[in-house]
Amino acid sequence: MGEKCEFCEEIQRQHRESTYKTPTLSKTGKILLALSGGTALALTTICYSFVSPAFRKITLPYVPATPTQINNILKALEGRSGKLIDLGSGDGRI
């Protein structure tokens, strides 16, 4: 029972002699990894400012513009020609 077969000894010898190296990324792979990571970080940073208000415990209420505010805007535009385009912030303010 204590004897080893020739096949087992050959496998052990080959295992000792093998020089297994861990795979490494090529230069192109490193560049692509850096670009994709940078792009993901940039998109996350840009989108965070738009998404973060939704995570507040107390969100801001919708408060529409008052008639006084609208009259003040119209008074400031008096005497000007052309169209007024209110891009707005989407929360009812002028």
TrEMBL record:
The alphabetical list of record keywords is: Membrane, Methyltransferase, S-adenosyl-L-methionine, Transferase, Transmembrane, Transmembrane helix
- Annotated membrane-spanning segments are 31-51
Q: Tell me the gene name.
A: LOC113472706
Protein name in UniProt: Protein N-lysine methyltransferase FAM173B
The source's domain of life comes to Eukaryota
What does the entry list under GO cellular component?
mitochondrion
Q: What's one GO BP annotation on this UniProt entry?
A: methylation
Q: Name one GO molecular function term.
A: protein-lysine N-methyltransferase activity
